[in-house]
Amino acid sequence: MPKPILTDGAWGTQLQARGLPPGELPDLWNLTRPELVEEVPRAYVEAGSEIVLTNTFRANRIVVHAKHPEIDVRAVNRAGVEISKRAAAGRAKVFASIGPSGKLLMMGEVTEEELEAAFREQAEALAEAGADALVIETMSDLAEAKIALAAAKATGLFTVACMVYDSGKNKDRTMMGVTPEQAAAELAEAGADAIGANCGNGIAGYVPVCERLRAATDLPVWIKANAGLPEIRGGEAVYSTTPEEFASHVPRLVEAGASYIGGCCGTSPDYIRAVREVLDRL
Amino acid sequence: MADLNKLHDAILYGDQKTAVAITEEALAEKIDPQKLIHEAMIPAMNEAGKKFECEEFFVPELLLAARAMKGALKLIQPLLAASGAEPIGTVVIGTVKGDLHDIGKNLVASMLEGAGFRVVDLGADVPADRFIEAVEKEKPNLVCMSALLTVTMPAMKTTIEALNQAGVRGKVKVMVGGAPVTPEYAAEIGADGYADNASTAVAKARELIAA
After folding, report:
1. Tens digits of per-residue pLDDT, B114-127?
2. Which domains does chain B possess?
3. What is the model's pTM?
4. Contact: B97, A23; criterion CB under 8 Å
5. How far is B188 from chain A (nearest CA, A)?
């Protein structure tokens, strides 16, 4: 079994630690504070990431233009890739992030055509700027994930498609009720090069999800788990899993068949460093 | 004759067209709108909520049921208004300042409308003063706040403090929810209630306005 590839950790909290105000779209910093954004992927590369993502998770026009109609969405995406490439400096691959629109297709909050146009624009800009691959993340709705996937695949780049399993008693469904088996079948059919799960669940919770994805497909499996689930302490939400605890679950995730391993909300370069140590010992 | 069991099932399984057609038929036959609501529609939404809790239904099925309910209610509301019947309560709802996520909030709003509440939706990224304005203008029984992000969740606390300072906190009950929110946090910031999904939100809302 080849050793899994180490991806990166959370971005939002890392940018907030550098002064991003709560609630501000992190992606806009690609244009206004690129030097601070660049510190994040650099720290991950230095911690041992072989793949870093980009600060473009919310850089689709449906999200950006809701509050900032004047912003050039393509420029935000291009800058995001350029920043991560500068930080990686050839030491890591840059997989560019595509997140959900935040609107429900089935309720008519957004149309298929609007989603297609938004994801096409984003994927094209990310590809133009030289991304090595694309990662569709944190999707709840398979229909939306497949629209994003079609837009990503049209660029010719390797594409990872991930859903967020945060619902149901066992946290093995997306909010829209999608199971790992359904996601694996439909995303593979729609041309994903790798499938996965990210956010919404701690690393222990993603071991069984990883096993089920692995059993349902021959494609590589990508897992980015949270540092546990947030707990409220002193009026603030904190993620309670330590880097060492997080890393201690990595061998089980490898056994469950993960080809790419990283962290999501609550993780930091310390978590990636701890996972690096575990992977290097395997 | 209009079949109330069919109306119940049409709502439960999200068939808006059939729900509307049977409601029209029933109203043409002069069946009491209150009977439609209490014997078919509300039980259907309650059952949808139960199916959601036991994971037979997920969000899409719940949304379809709420949409079918809303379609049927639209026909009934003018009759209720004409007969002087009041909605079971008014709710002002919004996602707090700094947070643009509105899927969860929209879902709760739909379910509350489906349950017969009048819902005033302030949208997302709602500053405290807009909540205050809405409380003064709409005279709701209940204010519902949502946040998806750990970093925007504290805006619930500041909004409750602002309601206090504006002297309107005592006029309403406050319910909060959203992914990072816990019952402990709700209690800590002085909210009256917490719901962890759209189905329990309806039950909690009924409980809060009855209290």
Report:
1. 888 999 999 999 99
2. 4-82 (1.10.1240.10), 90-210 (3.40.50.280)
3. 0.90
4. yes
5. 8
